[in-house]
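#help-structures
NK: newbie question, is this the right format to request a structure? protein is MCM7 factor
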Amino acid sequence: RCPRPSEAIFGILRELGGPGGRSVPLPQALQVLGARGFTPAQVSAALAEYEGLNVLQVNPSRSTVTFV
């Protein structure tokens, strides 16, 4: 089955974090996600969705995604 864009984006973020990874630089993530065909709107929606679920946090300067 094809995951929803937000599920696919979250999976890619987890991959970028590596095993036991706690955070990912957001500019690097945006570059990788853009190369895989995701739009900035899809990425923003996914980040907002998973922040709302308290699964990840984006710092105030929007430079790092941290997994909770």
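mod (FA): yep, format's fine, and the tokens are attached above. DSSP finds three helices and three strands in the chain.
NK: thank you!
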